[in-house]
Amino acid sequence: MAPACDRTDAIVVRCRCVSRENGGFHCENHSTSIDQTCPQCGAKCDPSSSSLYYLLSSDSRSQKDLEKVWRCISAAAKGFTIGAGLKGGLAAFAILARLRKGTFSASARKVGTVSNREAIIIAVKETLRYGLFLGTFAGTFVTVDECIAALGGHRRTARWRTLLAGAVAGPSLLLTGPNTQHASLAIYILMRAAVLASRCGMKSKRFGRICKPLTWAHGDIFLMCLSSSQILSAYILKQDSLPSSYRSFLNKHGGKDSVILQGVKEIASNIPFTNLKGIEKYYRSQGVNIKLDPKMKVPCLIVHGNQSCAAHVISFLVQAYGRALPVYLPVYFIPALIVHRQGLLKSPYTILGKGLLGTARSSLFLSVYCTSAWMWTCLLFRIFKRCNIPMVVMGTFPPGLALRIEKKSRRIEISLYCFARAIESFFTCMADAGLLPPATKLKRADVVIFSLSTAIIMHCYAQEREVFRSKYLNVLDWVFGVPPAISETPRCKNT
């Protein structure tokens, strides 16, 4: 009588037919002795082949685990590179401009002035902070994405996994500084998320009709006009409602001294002039002698001195174009050196020509935008023979039409950026007027908005990739390397 089979002496083997039926994934184990046959096909199991299978499957699992870990590390490193590169590049240009103006340490001893050495240290810290911010964001997103996929299954969690991962990664914004508010950035990212959500809605049968007005061909220009009305009005009437960096940008390209802006603000607000002598002194330093009347109704003499409105428009346009060129040269040529570095070797004249054309076109947009702001306000002041706040708001609406100069792909980007600034300025004005609670009472609302927005953006990236433009999709793919969608997994392809 043959001895009973001891389970401890049995060898766990895998029959080829079972592995073949399951495509090599999630197969069943059969506990058999070496002499037993497969319960499904009747063939004898080969322990040597099963051992080889276990070794290969173990190596395959280890390789996949290593790929997941590498994806997390790679995303964090690439995010840090992008954050540090962008912030560091802007800081480098700012420091070079500072050195060019000759603000050396001797003059920096004045009260409230930062020396060059201190400016460089601040720039390095800001560069590292923004690198850590984007590196942590990318690394956290990929880590959460991989952990949820490993615990809950890739296909089963695909519909909501990236939504949660994007929200969890959002608080990495705090790494830019625990006390640093980023309302403009958060609102801009929210605008980007709204655009992507609207594009998804246009594809939907349920929300298609609601989102239909968003397909208006010139909606970006109308949005720019609305933004322009708020931003340029705030530039003249209430500069403290704008972020300091954006305020500096407007003061440079607005082309007017602070005493001139103060004079226009006072006449528009119908309050007595406080510094007409300062305006006259400023024009004398420019070689122009003027005498200002405290009872004036139209501020054209304050805005452009003895020049006529038409002559001022022409001269201001030429000067504004010269100020705009240095802004757009790095915008076009630095990405060309990074993104199209291989194409520069093959067809350098084509790429450089496109860069020059883009620089000239964008510089023309900015110069026309700034020039038309003064042109339209002067025109309305002359027509109605008065200057007040509604006139300023009306006169700063049409300059947004200058966006038509830009190419179509850049219009929506510029209009959304300006709209985010306009929203921040508008709510700041409302809070200062007592119509809304102060922003200080809403602690880190920027982080909440940013997290909500990144959740929507990353969900669209994983599930609705066609709503992204190819250039943005390529960058996101390079950084995050999100796994394939449900329909692209091996099992779905086989079926």
From TrEMBL:
Entry annotated with the keyword Transmembrane: yes
Top-level taxon: Eukaryota
Domain Transmembrane protein 135 N-terminal: 308-428
Topological relation to the membrane, as annotated: Multi-pass membrane protein
A single Gene Ontology CC term: endomembrane system
Keywords, ordered alphabetically: Membrane, Transmembrane, Transmembrane helix
Membrane-traversing stretches: 364-384
Listed InterPro entries: Tmem135 (IPR026749), TMEM135_N (IPR031926)
Predominant localisation class: membrane
Sequence similarity: Belongs to the TMEM135 family.
Protein name, per record: Transmembrane protein 135 N-terminal domain-containing protein
